[in-house]
Amino acid sequence: MGNVRTIIDILDLSTQEIDELIDSARDIIANPSAYAEACRGKTLATLFYEPSTRTRMSFEAAMYLLGGNVITVASAANSSAAKGESIADTIKTVSCYSDIIAMRHPKEGAALVASRATGVPVMNGGDGGHCHPTQTLTDLLTIAREKGRFSDLTIGLCGDLKFGRTVHSLINALCRYEGVRFVLISPEELKVPSYVKEEALDAAGVPYVETTDLSEHMAELDVLYMTRVQRERFFNEEDYLRLKDSYILTPEKLTDAKQDLIIMHPLPRVNEISVAIDDDPRACYFRQVLNGKYIRAALILKLLKEAGTL
Ligand code: NCD
Q: Which of 267, 293, 295 for a ligand 1 pocket mutation test, highest count of atoms within 8 Å of Cβ?
């Protein structure tokens, strides 16, 4: 519908646009009062059909930071989806009340379907096991602030690399930078899907190794990105129970790690990182949470400006 910009996949943003969003987020962090009226009179709708704490609340906190309004549906059970309404009809309705929409849905491709039914910008807050572009923006702002660069990094991704949508989007984003190398740490059954390897890693000629052992490459890592085993995407509970504690990061496991390693996690954490790590200065998952608010504010501003709403 028209030329309205939607963010369904991290590849919907160019490298230059990502740099601009990071600069914009940094400016919001440095001068929050300059943005306090930026979205006055504008409304964000959040439509979340899967559980969420950080993604939905950070979108909403971002809109409040910009002086805008927020309306929300926080679960499918409380919306007309429970009565059988289609995504397209729901989005047409929500568009009557809002200037921009953030949504999460259990089905892959749902945000794309929604975006085609509206002239209002749609931001994908996670579509099944597929993509999670605004988590990736959060992750990129975190890497930019903590490491000062995206190039020449060895990045360990650990846990559920099959169903973890944050992992898929992050690989797609980081593949664009020079000197990036991945260590993919997962059980055999939870390896990165071959479409991600082919379309992102192989297409960009990015080197990677796959291993089941968290310690094997620890000493080489600049970034360690832990993830939760995605219980809700398993076909049977027995497999989940068998795999859920495959990796638990403890202080002992960091013995060989670099002093300037950063430990990230999109959260929620279940058991993947021992709480004993939380006080280690290298643990940046709660700083990562805060970054999510600022980068989403930058994204809302960009999309509303491009839509001619601001
Ligand atoms: C992630 C998600 O929803 O994909 N959470 C988040 O948005 N921060 C990761 C997860 O649920 O494991």
A: 267
